[in-house]
Amino acid sequence: MMGVGADNKTVSISSKFTLQQFEEGKEEVELDKMTPGNAEATRLAEADHLSTETREMWGRRLEFVLASIGYAVGLGNVWRFPYLCYRSGGGAFLIPYLIMLFLCGIPLLFMEFTVGQYTRLGPVHSLAKICPLFKGVGLATVVISYVLCTYYNVLMTWALYYLLHSFSPSLPWQSCNNTWNAVGNCSTGFPGNATHLQSASQQFFDHKVLEMTKGIEHAGGIRWELFGLLVLAWVIVYFCIFKGVKSTGKVVYFTATFPYFILFALLINNVQLPGAKDGILFFLMPNWSKLLEVQVWVNAAAQVFNSIGISFGSMISMASYNKFNNNILRDTFIVSLANSATSIVAGFVIFSAIGYMAHIHNLPVDDIATDGPGLVFVVYPEVFSTMPVSQLWAPLFFIMLLCLGLDSQFAMVEVAVTFIMDGFGKKVLQVFKRKELIVLAVCSFGFLLGIPHISRGGIYVFQLMDHYTAVVSLMFLAFFEVLAITLIFGVRRLSVMVENMLGKKPNLFFRVCWQFLSPMLVLGILISSIFQYTPARYGKSYTYPFWAEVVGWFISLISIIWIPLGALHELWTTEGSLLQRLKKSITPTVDLESVSEKPSAESIALFTAA
Predict the structure, then answer these.
(1) Which of 272, 260, 280 is nearest to 350 (CA)?
(2) Mean pLDDT across the stretch 556-574?
(3) Residue 4 domain-assigned?
(4) Which residues are annotated as a binding site for Na(+)?
(5) CA–CA dist 167, 154 (Å, integer)
(6) Of 259, 301, 267, 235, the residue nearest 69 (C-alpha)
């Protein structure tokens, strides 16, 4: 979610300082150009100066904060955290969750904000400057974000479908008297232990929305209603980001704040329903024995990591549009704590409603609680069908889902646009003439890649993509990003970047987390993910055929493969012996002369040391 236009394309204080230095040293540069090596360095320096001078910026700091919160607070806060909390010890789960938040989530978010704001570049080019050997990590984050946005917008398509149908005289998922219902096994409530029955809301989702087939091997043709809504979803995304941070910065005032009004309105309504107390107690009741299970701690770390959005490149990209001296430490705490608070409030909202449904149908809460798309597209619509004033709450809920999803979608698409503009801006603009057309091309290609998800067998494609992109690939990227920045680039250099921007070095807590705790936690999550790998499944019974699993691993490799390819390319194109190449490939090329105040001799030595 970024955006800024011509009005904000002014020269910042740091740029003025840089340009002044550039003019004062012009004669020396001309002499240096006599040497080929210095000429190349001068060319790179001039390119950096131009990039700094013309780069777009957020109109206000609040726009950056809202965009970051909007990206971090997504559908996972509503459908994953509450379920994971109650499955992992209830209130006891908050202990490992908060520990992981402060030891892993907050330090790594601060790290990404630092890299993006200091270099004023997207993830690809900033990581190439930080550690040339792992420049492929930046490209991998762009690829995984773009792949994710191609099917994430399908969720927005479903939300639009439900939103339009929620204006019907009666909610279409509340009865079994519809043409799509299988009357013999349809239940107007939750079937409980009657495994041969399906709820009316489940059949609406399966047979009306998806018209799903029996498996991924049966594509079944395009769902044209969903096709049209997918077009609409991408049109909405385009018009929210086509002007860059100028348009996105204004949109987030609504999309990042409106969900909170709905969330609190639902909370006030739900806690007054009969049975709500039982659902909330079920959500929070601590099971202290769960704290002895390693998997609970791994789940807590993974939830923090995925929810904040580390290693997707979006946070680096959004921070790159900040002013050089923006207080990213303050913004880090605001974004992280707002994200976690939203997850906890969403837990109260969801489980108060589930407790109400358990009370209505005289079933255990455990029979109703679920996670993933089934929670927001099956369980919650069923809740609305029995709520007072259901015609009010249903549209508001799906508008909330749209806002939550669109904010995350903005940021993921913007990563690809930032990569194109940073790396090939002038060349691409010669073809497309305007940045708006580049954004249109990015959105159009994302739409085409999303079409398989809105076929009648698309839900199986969706689940396969989500499993191998958001679960398998992400932890590999996270590990190599942390390795490149905190261990190879180094905490000392990272601290100097913070000092140059904020006027003081990060405190001991952040330095210890960067140096030891965060890398160990990320490595632990990665190892756990490898050893506890399970093939993708849909529901409780459908298992994917072997060829689909192969496709899934290929999807994972689409992003991961750029890490070794980038390293090989760097070593191949660097001159010297193998040892010299390795030494050069881990030497950062960050230009410290682009700061608003001249760095100290110690700072320069840190960044230029071989």
Answers:
(1) 280
(2) 92
(3) no
(4) 70, 72-73, 77, 307, 339, 404, 407-408
(5) 21
(6) 259
